[in-house]
Amino acid sequence: MPTRTPAVQATALTKIYGTGDARVIALDGVTVDFHRGQFTAIMGPSGSGKSTLMHCVAGLDRPDLGAIRIGDAELGELSDDQLTALRRDRVGFIFQAFNLLPTLTALENITLPFDLAGRPPDQTAVDRVVDVVRLRDRLGHRPSQLSGGQQQRVAVARALVTNPEVVFADEPTGSLDSAASTELLGFLRRCVDEFEQTVVMVTHEPSAAAFADRVLFLTDGRLVDELTAPTADRVLDLMKSLEKVTS
Amino acid sequence: MLKAMIRDLVAHKSRVVMTLLAIAVGVAAMVAAWLISDSTATALSAQRSRTDVGIAVQRIDSDAALTVAQSKQLADLPGVRGVSVVAVGRAGLVGADGKLVPGETVPEYAGTNWSRTSRFELTEGRAPAKAGEVVLRDAEAAKGQLRVGTRVRILLADAKVDTPVVVGLFAYRSLGPRSDPQLGSDPVPAVAYDARTATKVLGDDVERIELTVVPGADSTALTAAADRITGPGFRASTGETLAAASAREAADGAKDLRLALLPAAAVALLVGMFVIANTFSILVTQRTRQFALLRAVGAYRRQIRFSTLVEALLLGSAGGAVGVACGIGLAALLLPLMNSDGRIPLAGVPVAVLLGLGIGLLVTVTAAWSAARRAAGISPMAALRLDHSTPRAQGRRQTIIGAVAVAVSVVVIGLTASPSAENAARIVSLLAALVGVVGVLLLAPVLAGFCLRPLLGLVARRSSPALRLAVRNAVRDPRRTAATGTAITIGLALICALGVLSATLLSLVGSTVRENVPAATTIVQPAAGGEAVLDASTLELVRRLPEVSTAAGSRDVVADISYRGGQTVRRVSAIEPHALGTVFTPDLVSGVADLRQGAVVSKNQADMLGLRLGDELTVTFDPAHQVVTKVAGIYDATELQAAIFVDVAAVPERTRSRLSLIYATGPDPVAAKAALDRTFAVRPDVEVIDRDALVTRLQDVQRVGFAVLYAMFAVAVIIAVFGVVNTLILSVTERTREIGIARAVGAGTDLIRRSIAWESLVISTFGAVLGVFVGLGVGAVLQHAMLGQHLADLTVPWLVIVLGLVGVIIAATAAAAWPAARAARTDPLRAIASG
């Protein structure tokens, strides 16, 4: 895979929770680039800091030390409002659960970023993402009327609809069965392949990581390894060896 | 985003119903208070729009009289077209039940002469034409159940009785203000005879002469001329002046009524605000993840804040609208009850509608403000947390501020606790009490923890699982428990404070009367109450009884008093010197109880005016009657009692024959009382009572005033109960999962229902008990500040406290019914599935 200009750059990120005995170093000087048009998976045992890394990089949380750049924006220099606007217009999110507002229909959830920006939705973009996730016949439904897999597809559509520079996904398949997981990961893969979308995903499932172009491994808040063109078996092997090292 | 919020409101109607009700009840109280005062004012001023009188010569000194020659002179003034004399006389109307009909005017002014002016408007029958005929005012006739064609008993002056036939009913239209020291007053009569009969039956006591004038006459010159003819006892004014004064009086009356009603309505709104604030606080907590998600996908803080405020705005408008409608209904319902005359149309509706809506909005948005700020402060990270009921941080700052406020309040109250404190110190004391209340409310979450945690240990050992669950839930979030409970605290604290004040006042009234009036004294007083008086013939009647050895009359008049320190207006009682020490035994603090040596003054009046024994006093009854005396004795009494006694010999002749009260006793007090009872059995206008009945009468007067306030504050408690229902519903929603799990592992619906009921009871009782203590504290300060008592001299209103607590417990149990039923219906499977 050829090296391209990074969509997201993180330099020497450090994040510490709590004080005294309860002090936990979640991130310990992590430096990482996420390349444009690449599907990156972040893996690691629980407590390794993989979620914290993603939250900081995505502008949801602020690191104690270090710098993050998304495109031309230096996140540390942004005010809360600027950061909010950046999340709205230039970043897409897919969470493990509770991605949707229960009182809005699927379509309204998808166009929520436009709604928040006070802009009319970009109809071509909406049509495109709706077709990608194949939700055309479900648009008028409320989240409670959709299956878990369909709900996550709505979340994917919402994440993609603003044509963001990067999409962050935090354990997006965590509460889905394997068929729905495969389908969802397939959508993400297509976005990367067909629309050159940059995707960063946190997961603990090797099978999910296998959909990525590149897998980063985190342990105790540090980047410890990296794998390109992964398969589920290679990911699993690496994880086993890491666990041996740490234990 | 607004769409999401509005759908959320619609989807969770039960969440908002109670908030709506809380807003609506507060607004309704406000609107009703406004409408009642406004309508009464409008009706009062509308009644007085007489335009047929050019100039009215009104008696301003009750001793003044007008001769026939003087009225002739008035009639002969250039520009005067006609003269109509208004005479008044004693006419006590006896109802069908044989009792005196309580009228708008006291009996001694309730009779008048019929005239063809616009004073009267016949509503039924015909005008009186000859002796033996009479017309009655419709309101009094209705009260006494007296109909046209029946014979009626009228009690006249000097114990005479007339029994004419009612030939008609009239409505009265007043000219000028009802009571004005400068312009005189126009008493509303209950009884009218034809002019000739009136002179015979009522006497020729001229109250007013109404002059009609030719158009274009110089009213200023005419007024001056009329004043020259009649002398200082009468005052001539133009019809316009009187109309203006009457409008002013109506406006003042409305303002007073409003000032009395609106604060109570404001209390209701304040409690409503607590309920709303609490509801929004819970709503925001419940929606933490929604807000966090919105923040994550790009909603600005201000958008979140705005959406919460819009929600408040919508609720405020809806609650305001419902409240306005209820308020209008309530006013329409209450007006006829409050005004026995009925016929008062609703006025000021547009203003009330705007006021209600405006206040509904203002209160709701203000109450939701802090919740909106909190919602905006939610971090986008909160969307990622799986358990969404994150415990709220204990407000350490709030606790510190609360503790400081309570400490400051206690110290300041302690420093200003002296009963002889100046007015300024008393006001400081009251303000300190207010600060203390705010402090306690701020400390409420800590107190809730303190009080309920030991309870948790207590119920853990031996009690039903329902109670254990309930207490654990109440303790789990002391902040919510406190916020819910304190709404009740405010309402009950007000009621208790009022209870202390009223109980202390009543016991003071009782003890003072008992101290100053011997048990052997029988009291003869006018049955009409208020400002009504008995005439000299009644005192004569009492004195002539062989069983009565001592009888004295107290004549209470308002007079100007000049003293060393300045000049003031006070109520002065003129009484026979021999009464002191026999039928009336003032508890002397210093000096002698001898009116021949000077005035006897109550201690609180003496303190207030800075009077000491031997100080000179000039009492001016009217310009022609001035008495110079000195302070001969000082006695102990409350502020309610007539406080300055002077020798009856010093007062004007007319005042002497206007007796507010007669004290009598005999060698055998029981026989004397029996004789008096017998004598006045045929006189419904006279009441014979013993000392204890006098105490009861005086206390009843106070009780009526307090009853209105109790009712108003009860509204506040009702609103607070809505708050409890609301919190319970919200907490049931919040705990759906938990309740579902409890159901799944075998909790019966009955257990769930009972645990919710217990929770309601625990929260409400906490609020109520706190309210009782706060109320007792505030009450102690109130009675100190208002009655000049020691802080510890308060009378505890046990009945009020017990009724209040029982009421809250019943209300809390009832309030739990709906949420408890909802909780019990929770489907275990669905509850667990809804992650």
Offer a concise description of the structure.
The complex is a heterodimer of chains A (247) and B (835). By secondary structure, chain A is of the alpha/beta class. Chain A has a domain of 170 residues: P-loop containing nucleotide triphosphate hydrolases (Rossmann fold).
Characterise the protein shown here.
The complex is a heterodimer of chains A (247) and B (835). With 247 residues, chain A is α/β, with parallel strands linked by helices. Chain A is built from 9 helices and 10 strands. In chain A, a hairpin with a 6-residue loop joins strand 1 and strand 2 (24-35). Chain A starts with 5 loop residues before the first strand and ends with a helix. Chain B folds into 4 domains: 1-47 and 247-390, no CATH class; 61-232, no CATH class; 444-515 and 692-835, no CATH class; 528-683, no CATH class. Chain B has 23 helices and 22 strands. The radius of gyration of chain B is 33 Å and the shape is elongated. The interface between A and B is medium-sized, with 30 and 25 residues. Chain B: It is a multi-pass membrane protein.
Question: Could you name the key traits of this structure?
Answer:
heterodimer, A: 247 residues, alpha/beta, Rossmann fold, six-stranded mixed β-sheet, four-stranded antiparallel β-sheet, 10 strands, globular, B: 835 residues, alpha+beta, nine-stranded mixed β-sheet, six-stranded mixed barrel, 23 helices, 22 strands, elongated, transport (chain A), transmembrane transporter activity (chain A), ABC transporter ATP-binding protein (chain A), MacB-like_ATP-bd (chain A), ATP-binding (chain A)
